[in-house]
Each structure stands twice: as C-alpha cells, then as structure tokens.
Amino acid sequence: MLGLLSAMSAGTADFLGGLASRRARALAITTASHLVGCLMAAALAALIAADPVASDIGWGALGGVAGAGGLLSIYAGYARGRVSITAPVAGVGTAALPVLVDSFTGGDPLSTLTVIGILLGLVAIAMISMARSQSTGRVGLSLAYGLGGAVGLGLLLTGLAQAGEDSGIWPLVAARGAGFVGLAAVMVLTRQKQSASAPVVWLVMGIGLLGVAGNALFIAATRVGSTAVAAVVTSMFPAFTVLWAWKVFCERLRPVQVVGIAVALVAVSLIVIG
User: DSSP state, 252?
Assistant: First the structure.
C-alpha cells in the first residue's frame, strides 16, 4: 500500500510537471521543484524524531544527484529522441536496478508469487509507458537517454533505501538539496533564465510536495518490507500519469496501455499475496 501511494504521488507529480513544462522550461521547473521539495522535506524532518548518521546523508545526497541527472536524461530523450523508447526503458530500469542491488546485497528472500509479481510489474511498467512518439529521433540515441534516466532514478531509489531506519527522512532532505544544487549548476552553466507566472508557481509547489511525498512513502515502504517489492510497485507511477492525462485531457489510452494497467493490478495482487 505504501508503494502504491508512492506511485500515485510520483505519477501525479509527473503529470503536473508536464503541465508546467508547457509554460516554462523543463530544467527550470525541475530545479525549482527540487528547491521546494527540499524546504518541505526539511520542515517535515524537523518534526520527526530521528538520529541520522553521516552515511545516511551521504547516500541521500548521492542518490539525489543521480536522480536529478536521470530526470535531465529523460527530458532530453523526450525532446531529441523517441518517447516510445525512452519512457519504457527508463521506467523498467528504475524498478530493476534497486531489485538487482537488493538481491546482490543479501536482501530478504522473496516468495515465488512475489517474484512472479515483480516480473509482471516490470512488464506492466513497459506497457503502460508506451505511447506513440511524435519524434523521429534515432533508436540508439533514444535508448541511451532511457538508460541514463533508468540509472539515475534507479540510483535515487537505491540510495534512499540504503539509509538507516533511525535516519527519519533526512536522507530525502539531502537528496532534494543535492539535486537542486546539481540542477542549479546546470542552469548557470547553460545560462538559462526563466520567469514564472502565478499558475506555474502553484504547479511547482504541487510538484515539489507530491515528489517529496512519493519519496518519503518509498522510504517508509522499504522499512516495513522488501526494497525489491517497494521499488517495483513505486515504479508503476506511469499508470497514474496516464490515467490523469486520460481524465483531464481526454487522451485516448492505447490498447497496450489498458492491458498494461490490468497487468499492473495483477502484479500488485501477487506481490501482496506473496
């Protein structure tokens, strides 16, 4: 349930990010939302009893920088390559990397039903993420951007999962803060300036709040259960992004996406039962 709530938050934040990117540069939106998220996470962390150590902050910061780079890679893939290739590769990879790390570092053994559910979840993520591309970008370039996004976001989830149980959500504060610094540096180096209207500011606030909520829920999920399970369920966020687009913009769902959502429901059920 925590993983599903995390996916819902992240998917909604992704949808709001798409809305905001229609009115401002994606890099500026991502940078500002990271700053908002860092401030919100810090305010919440101060209210929660915690005893973080240096390694907890370090893991969060490393994951945050990697996650920021992953977002930039995905956005570049959308702009310069084929969305239909970049999105599925990034979605599946984001889920697969924490699963692989957990298995190699001696994570809790998974039941057969859970393993089947995880595999179906990976398939579902790819199916839900598929959409007709409006770009004629090269396959190899699109694949590279997707892999960059997968590694970045996968390392973000992995870093947050490595933090100790007594660290509260301070690793998330470090992740958002480090991500903001990295993105701000890119903005300075590329000399990008962006003014924002009131509607965009409110969207950025929503993105920051929901993004932090999604990450915090993922951290909670890893502490009460398996990191592998939490990562796969959380990475089903494209389903909620697609559903919001269908509801708000009346976008038609492709048959493969409808089947993917159904497969995701089956996968979650198997994971819960397992």
Answer: P
